[in-house]
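Please, structure for the following, as tokens.
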Amino acid sequence: FAFSVGHAPSPGEAMAVGLLVGCASGLALGVGLAKTPWEKAWEKVSPRRKARAEDDEDGVALPASICRTSRPPSVYAGGFARWSSGAGSVGKVFGCEEGTGSEVLSPGVRRLSQNKRRRDSALFTQVEQRVTEEKLVIVMVGLPARGKSYISKALVRYLNFLGCTTSLFNAGSLRRDEGGAGVSASYFDPNNLDAKAQREAMAMQCLEELLGFLRQKGNNVGILDATNTTIDRRTKVRKRCAKEQGISVIFLESLCTDSSVLEENYRLKLVNDDYKGMDAEEATADFLQRVVKYEEAYQPVEDVEDGVEMSYIKLIDAGKKLIKNLSLTSARKSLPGHVFNLLHSIHLGPRSIFLALVGESENDVVRRFGGDSALTPAGQQRGPALAKFLDKHEAEVREQAIPGSDVEPTLVMCGTLQRHLHTAHHLLLSRTHRRSRTILKLQRLNELCVGGLDGMTRDEVEEYHSEESKGMLENKLTYRYPGEGGESYQDLILRLHENILRLEQLRGSALVLCDPGVFRVFLAYFRGTPLEQVHELEVPKGVIQLTRTHSGFQEMRIDIPVPKLEDCSA
């Protein structure tokens, strides 16, 4: 002012200028700079957290009371909001450019739309074995009814589940397909030279088909399921595989002297096509004679055969003892380790595994992703219905058990969210055993995490995040949901890996109480479903019972009287 008038202001002039500036400031504060509850909350956020809000998709959580009572402005003080008007909703503030005029439409809409294209490493998951191209031949060894078929099919399921493309080549199935079904025990007599030559030729034919499979790009493991009980046969197999480049060989021998296990295996073998339509006693007698013929020529696997150190694993008495001698020393060979992990877990004992959905939650009704909402009145009926079902199953098992034997109550495994705990609460007491069931509450059994889409409905995702919806449809297996903690189905499979092995280890019955995504993964494993089809599996409203057979698990659906449950899985 002094510069503009050319002299120092008098006291009266200075007072006038002060009043003018004060009024202008007051007007600006009163009209243009009034702060909303959202802006006030943003001011309280630490500078460090604000910086993080600009870089990630997690944002800064604001009190639910603000979200319920005040709609956020489109732009304010360097931030904008994730907003929802639903009861109990929690808003989140994210960093943004001032003056853009962006309007906040729905939870997370603006933030995710700014991130037009995420890094491939964040968008998709890689399957290790489809990158390394490791090749392995597993040669089964053992007398009939020692669990070779069960073990080999378990390996096929498990390795395919991990992404290692695996296939089984069974010499017995080839014989039956070529018209050799129903042959008598004399066919397996080592002194029957014509039959012996035929069996040798079929085994080597199986091996050639196996090697042809491994030559194809993307295939990792071939399993030769035959008796291979002589050193001569194993030497032929090993030398033939040595002619192929980059293929490792492991001999897997199953030994069993446990009479109870053998009796059960003999019983299961009677469903074999060789004994179709035959009297049970006659079939059993012929099969036992077949075993005797094989025993006459049987030679167990040794550390060194034909001057070569053998790579082998021996499974003794249905998993009671495990011996390995692996000469494969390459640090890049991971397949033998996967094989050993499964063999350390599986056994040949009878048991049942049940898969069941948790009760219907409030989020299921409105088709909202994620969250930890309570059960609906319909969902609250799920627990009592499952408890009644388990009591009936345990009573049947107890009646069939050997008198005086200790039959354990069914083990219950569930997640840690409200819907899991409230459903599992009804399963705690076993009325049959008159004692408590063990309930394992495991975070790993929680549903597939949808990351930044948590709390949004399917309609909101389709309307405001079309790019994410497109990504889901392109590759359901490896597509990873955006934001902190977001997972793909492949991530979920790896997360459930240890739980799969635990189910294989169990000697008694178990019930897995889970959400649809986790249900599909477990069901895909026991069915042997290709990974790319996991997300397509139907999730039944009842219970799936999986019972051990001579070749794997037999599946049976059981309806329980509960209201229809909505599938709002990822």
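Residues 193-215 form the longest helix (23 residues). The CA atoms of residues 303 and 309 lie 6 Å apart.
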